[in-house]
Amino acid sequence: MSDIIVHSIPGSPFGRAVLTTLIEKGARFRLDPVAPGAHRAEPHISRHPFARVPVIEHQGFMLYETQAILRYLDRTFPRPALTPADPKAAARMDQAMNINDWYLFQGVNNAIGFQRVIGPRVLGLTPDEAVIAAAMPKAHTVFNEFSRLLGGKDYLVCDTLTLADLMVAPHLDILAGTPEWGVLTAPAPNLVSWLERMRERPSFAATTWERVAAMAAAQAA
């Protein structure tokens, strides 16, 4: 089977979700790095009309939207299965993935994570404390809900890894590098343990910002 091409920006949590899934599947892939800002111009805008990352190409098939990509990979490479066979557990997985997109990213990571980590590192910006403060109430709601869903399990949905873990963990890993992390996890300590379990997985260790940047540099050489 031919390699999957992943078009993504190093440091993107959505791109990292795709890369970790590919590694968990043992699938062959090649990273085609997209420079920050280049996602709004050609040739990337022809791949993704909404100017986001990641996009994958596989045997002439091009696909964007991270949830769609992860489900495609799980169907194309069925072992190990990353979607629970139980319908209720699968529904919980879908729920967690949607919480990620609509509430964790929108209004939390794209505010706190951007102001504290992405903006300063990529654009040299100074964090806007007002934006961060405004995002904290929603962040508490999101963290408390993920903590409730996790409970005492090893992973978010059940005791085995699912697509939900691979989607949520890159976002929380960014937020773990902010001063707000300790405040947000004080009432949700199980999320700290869960993130440490995720960091111990080879797929997660291989897809840090630094590792993906090195991967991108090797591709460009």
Topology:
Layout lengths: L3 E5 L4 H13 L3 E5 L10 H4 L7 E4 L2 E4 L1 H11 L10 H37 L5 H22 L12 H13 L4 H6 L3 H12 L1 H4 L3 H12 L1
Parallel strand pairs: 1-2
Antiparallel strand pairs: 1-3, 3-4
Helix pairs in contact: 1-3, 1-6, 4-5, 4-6, 5-8
Describe the structure.
Helix content is 61%, strand content 8%. Strand 1 (4-8), helix 1 and strand 2 (29-33) form a beta-alpha-beta unit. It has two domains: 4-81 and 205-220, Glutaredoxin, CATH 3.40.30.10; 87-201, Glutathione S-transferase Yfyf (Class Pi), Chain A, domain 2, CATH 1.20.1050.10. The model has no long low-confidence stretch (mean pLDDT 96). It has ten helices and four strands, in the order E-H-E-H-E-E-H-H-H-H-H-H-H-H. The chain has 221 residues and is an alpha+beta fold. It has a four-stranded mixed beta sheet with strand order 2-1-3-4. The two termini are 25 Å apart. The chain has helices at residues 13-25, 44-47, 66-76, 87-123, 129-150, 163-175, 180-185, 189-200, 202-205, 209-220, and strands spanning 4-8, 29-33, 55-58, 61-64.
